[in-house]
Write a structure and sequence with these properties.
Oligomer: single chain
Strand order of the largest sheet: 5-6-7-8-11-12-13-14-15-16-17-18-19-20-21-22
CATH class: Mainly Beta
Shape: globular
Structural class: mainly beta
Number of helices: 5
Largest sheet: 16 strands, antiparallel, barrel
CATH architecture: Beta Barrel
CATH superfamily: Carbohydrate-selective porin OprB
Strand content: over 45%
Number of strands: 22
Distance between the termini: 24 Å
């Protein structure tokens, strides 16, 4: 009998029992029925569904009767804790010392083939919990599993509902394995892919094989995405729109049009592209010394009612109060550009990097308060210590803001995530993240994560902060 205890995390392997907060799964020597009292009972269907019904198709472009539907699922639990860092003062959007928070989510990935090359995917999800300080206090927020809205009780949302159409343009075929939101199929190297509906912009843009999935690799927002990519999204990170991808040899060209939220950082999207964002991406895949890699350049342009930071500052001076962007918003645009690199170095070691820049004179709209960013890191599989399904990751990030944004925060202005009420000594927000993901079973991973943040919210008077986390991820 093997037992592991981490905070409220308890795992026993013999008869397998996984207990995480309100999530509990018991398997007594054979596939059994999960018992999930926080509303995750939908995952029970996965354990009772034969593997051949979930991995729905052999690599063939013509689906048979048994391959028209697919069912996958996941559940992820994260608990984070800050240390008692130095905090001589705090504001409305400050990170608090010595606090702990947890989040739990469970998702079903339901797929159906519609006609040749077309797939429909629905992702119903149950969520519960809060990020640290209700997802405030650090521009590079430490948990990508935390949304900007949290609740004590489980609640349900349909996070994705989209149709993907693939048009193969060549006769060659490459097999694609089945997985969440992906049927097993075969595609040509030259093809066009169109996705329409509700999904996340970063499902298609700014993807990276080593740093992009907070349920399995890094947790920090500005490691898994470019911090300057102020992508269209509601408070949960999803939007309604369309994206087109043209694959031609080693190149991919992408374009997208998405709804922005009705006001910055809102849970409500503005329909019919009244406020919208366009995204463009150019990707090139290559081999370096026989190892695969890619480089992607992403550009966004948001059109919405946004405030110039200087106008918000002037309004605060005129009224004798703090800067108020809501009082001076007008229809304008904010744009940005980022570079995303990934490179396999050896069979088990990969490197990644992101660089980004965005307009620093306008309020940020959807993602987080970053005007310039540089991140880089390594991801190492555990083959060298005979744990090939384990992963060790290390990343470093430097986030920065413009002089106008520094003045705005110094006068008491609030950003999407940051705002200590004052900023007498601004500095870059520097962070390091490392994690170890332990594969207890092929479908069950337990991760320990550590993050160190210097100058949280660009404030040299506060911190540095140490943040530890435990994560449990179940994929079926």
């Amino acid at each position: 009998m093997l037992r592991i205890g981490v905070g409220v995390l308890r795992i026993e392997v013999g008869t397998l029992r996984l207990g995480v907060g309100t999530l509990r799964i018991a398997v007594h020597g054979r596939p059994g029925l999960p018992r999930i009292p926080m509303g995750l009972a939908c995952l029970a269907a996965l354990l009772l569904t034969p593997a051949h019904a979930r991995a729905a198709e052999a690599p063939d472009s013509t689906p048979g009767p048994a391959s028209r539907f697919a069912l996958f699922g996941q559940a992820t639990y994260v608990e984070q804790q800050t240390d008692g860092f130095h905090a001589p003062y705090s504001g409305p959007n400050s990170l608090s010392p010595s606090q702990g928070r947890e989040t739990t989510d469970a998702t079903l990935f339901l797929g159906a083939r519609l006609w040749k090359g077309a797939e429909l995917w629905l992702n119903p999800e149950t969520d519960e919990g809060f990020g640290l300080d209700d997802t405030l206090g650090v521009a590079g927020f430490p948990s990508g599993e935390a949304y900007k809205i949290g609740r004590d009780a489980p609640y349900f949302r349909l996070q994705r509902a989209f149709v993907r159409q693939t048009f193969n343009l060549g006769d060659d075929r490459t097999a694609v394995e089945a997985g969440p939101n992906q049927f097993a199929t075969s595609v040509s190297s030259d093809r066009i892919v169109v996705t329409v509906g509700k999904f996340s912009v970063v499902d298609v843009f700014d993807t990276n094989r080593y740093a992009h999935d907070p349920s399995q690799d890094f947790l920090n927002w500005t490691v898994i995405d470019a911090g300057t990519f102020d992508y269209a999204a509601d408070a949960w990170g999803y939007s309604v729109g369309a994206a087109g991808e043209w694959y031609i040899g080693p190149w991919t060209w992408r374009a997208g049009l998405f709804d922005l939220s009705n006001v910055p950082n809102s849970p409500i999207l503005e329909p019919c592209c009244d406020e919208y964002q366009t995204d463009l991406e150019m990707e090139h895949r290559h081999e370096l010394l026989g190892r695969p890699g890619k480089v992607a350049l992403t550009v966004f342009e948001s059109h919405a009612r946004m405030a110039l930071l200087q106008d918000a500052i002037d309004y605060g001076v005129d009224t004798g109060g703090s800067p108020d962007p809501a009082a001076v918003r007008a229809y304008r645009k904010r744009d940005g550009v980022s570079l995303d690199l990934e490179q396999q170095i050896t069979g088990d070691l990969g490197a990644f990097a992101r660089l980004g820049d965005a307009g620093g004179n306008v309020e940020t709209y959807e993602f987080t308060d970053v005007d310039r960013t540089v991140s880089l890191g390594l991801s190492l599989q555990g083959e060298r210590w005979r744990r090939p399904d384990d992963t060790l990751g290390l990343a470093g990030v430097v986030n920065a803001i413009s002089v106008e944004r520094q003045r705005y925060l110094a006068d008491g202005g609030l950003g999407i995530l940051v705002g200590d009420g004052q900023l007498p000594h601004p500095g870059h927000e520097n962070l390091i993240e490392t994690y170890y993901s332990w594969a207890i079973l092929p479908a069950l991973h337990v991760t320990l994560d550590y993050q160190w943040v210097e100058n949280p919210a660009y404030n040299r008077d506060r911190g540095p902060v140490s943040i530890v986390a435990a994560r449990v991820h179940l994929a079926l």
